[in-house]
Amino acid sequence: MKLFRIRGGVHPEGRKRLSEDKPIEDLPLPELLHVPLQQHIGAPAVVIVKKGDLVKKGQVIATAQGHISAPVHAPSSGQIVGLGRYTAPHPSGLPGRTLTIRTDGKDQWAALPPPLDPFTASPEEIAKRVSDSGIVGMGGATFPSAVKLNLGARFDLHTLIINGAECEPYLTCDDRLMREHSADVIAGVRIMARALKVERAIIAIEANKPDAIRRLRHAAQNDDVVTVVEVPTRYPMGSEKHLTQTLLGKETPARGLTADIGVVVHNAATAFAVFEAVTLGKPLVSRIVTVSGEAITRPCNLRVPIGTPVAKLIEHAGDVKVEPERLLLGGPMMGQPLSDLKVPVVKGTNGVLALAGLEASAMAHRTSCIRCASCVDACPCGLVPLDMAAAIRKEEMEIATKSGLMDCVGCGSCAYVCPSNIPLVQYFNYAKGRITYLQRAEHKQKETKRLADLRNERLERLAQAKREAMAKRKAEQARKKAEKAAQEQQQEIASA
Amino acid sequence: MSTSPPLIGGPYLKQSPSVSHIMLVVMLALTPATLYGLFQFGWPAVNLFAVTIVSAMAAEAVWLKMAGQPIKPALSDGSAFLTGWLLVLTLPPWAPWWIGALGSVIAIWLGKQVFGGLGQNLFNPAMVARVVLLISFPVQMTAFIAPHPLAGPATIDFMEGIAITFGYGTAHVDTLSSASVLGHLKTEIGRGTAWSEAFADTFNMRGFVFGAVPGSLGETSAPLLLLGGLLLWGARIITWHIPLAMLGSIAVLAALFNAIDPLIYPSALVHILSGATLLGAFFIATDLVTSPVSPLGKVVFGVGCGVLVYVIRTWAGYPEGVAFAVLIMNAATPLIDRYLKPRVYGRTRRGQPLAYKEPSK
After folding, report:
1. B-chain residues within 8 Å CB-CB of A382?
2. Helices then strands (H, E): number in chain B?
3. Do B21 and A367 touch (CB under 8 A)?
4. What is the pTM of this model?
5. Distance CA A313, CA A450 (A)
6. Is CATH 1.10.10 the classification given to domain A366-471?
7. The complex's ipTM?
8. Which of A198, A363, A445, B131 has the smallest CB count inside 10 Å?
């Protein structure tokens, strides 16, 4: 298949060797599971159990709220022992609403919905099942998958792209999944293609995963819908717009969706989850997580129940052998610093990394920008990061926006190549937040002004009505007076 | 076990060389041509080289001290060293010591630090210094000499070299001085001589190509400058855009006018191999700080430099115009950067989102 070149990008060292040959292991069930209600983009789920309730594995414990949301299921059987605030997997380390389950060790499944026949189920049935199973984008974006499976209703779709690029260094969870469950992944892809009513599904895998490519190709033999394509190893290949362009040569319009050009992109792990939900009735209660980094004694790929504290994963990986310089959730390019080891694994957690040595030390020394334009060449979005950063430093958010700040996908390629170690991504994230805040403040101000104007108008109208009524009454009185006077006059005349 | 990492944005991997690494590679790329120049012009050139670089470092240190800024990190990034180095390569090799020293002070103070230090300057510091020197001290700045290789019959011994650079003793530059290639041609063409005759009478082609001609300290050896340029390109410090655009536009203009009147317009080869063309195209116009950042902007910048170089050499009062051309294009860099940005992903060049024919339902 002919591939298309994308602009920019970088070639970080993969470092996948640490864990790519470690088969997926089941993490022993922890005693406590902390299941956050917000594990997806959209409205948080609404709790339907109470403290003390006994739950079974796969039972719904919180339901979706609104159109863009996802339900949450019990990852194992046990008792609800807490419903409160618990440190969320977010760099702030602030607490979020979380259900705590004390597991009973039996890991007993609840009654699951009946399997659907993947060859006869209607697209609506499939989307409903995916929605009910709490499946979200498992590459880390955590957008509710069913919403994306329903895009066929609004757009003319022709292609489903399965993102198996896994372009972040260290991470091997999708690689392992594609190698060990090739047939299931392909089945999941077929189901999704059916739900989207598309004729073509392309699984894109970076060239550094030859075994996954081989196995999936083998599993997709004689398949008229699914093709497996090797794409170059280049970060950020996994960015959905860039992956689409690599495969189809079409750019997604700015501020738009890939659906605008007829494409929907899902992650390979999502395809596997869809397979389990549709053909086995299993909701999303566990996921594969890569535990890696030079500080980890025994890097591995683990199947982890949602809600397991990160500390348990590191413990299972033989703990750290040296003091890690940095602990991360997700990959080293776009992942987030881990605020606390007690934070739970959620649906979007693809890696737990403990970096030591070379990789984390480089950022120490910051110098001034020498306009070397490395960032300009590396930016896959055609932006000029150095100008944007200069504007943001001066708090000139308008200029930063005009330079395309909102078109930035936050991939970090610019900061990766910067010889001056300028934390460009930090600047951009700050500015994005700041601009959202300013827009909100402006909106609020406008809204306040509009309401105040309306109120003034209303009061004015009332006052006007009052004045008119008064004037009318006065006129009435005057008229009566005049009539009376006229009558009296007439009477006088008459009497005279 | 618990750690609380400082909250900073990713990525947590770094590829890149540091700023001082970039400076080191540039120095490495300059080394062959520099060594050749030092060898060719003997001890006076070595002295001037040392004086200029030491002065550049001293000027940087003095400024930082006065500004109350830490001295060590700024000095160790190598940028002042490199500025001095680039400056001395463009000076007549037997210039007195104070030309180099004064030039360094101008480059560092007026060229760089007044703008706010590394990365903030609008103009190439070495070129600012060169132009100030050329206008203020035209005699010293045009006193070129024929090569006096360190090992050879015409060699100048160490003590004589000291005498020449520091201005006392017997040897007098005036008696030895000759014009550079471009200066010679300009004079002769002005007199009505055909350029090729003037050229052939004074220089031999082989010496001209390899750099055994009168000229600035580091500008004469075309093959070694080309080698350095390729090294920079190979190390991804510079892209091909500026050198190719600049050399290409000079070559095209020179060939064009040479075709129109072969008597008074020197050939493209002479323009490319003489003066500061190659040093300028690979090391000076490509200065990261003062050139545009987008590929298209770099091409425009390079073409602008090339055209100006040719125009100044051919029709203006000076035989050589690289320094002026680069400074003028430096001034245009903010404008170029503003209007020639790369196209943003998913948008047209004008910044509107791309539109496709197939509409959404």
Report:
1. 341-345, 347
2. 17, 2
3. no
4. 0.86
5. 54
6. no
7. 0.85
8. A445
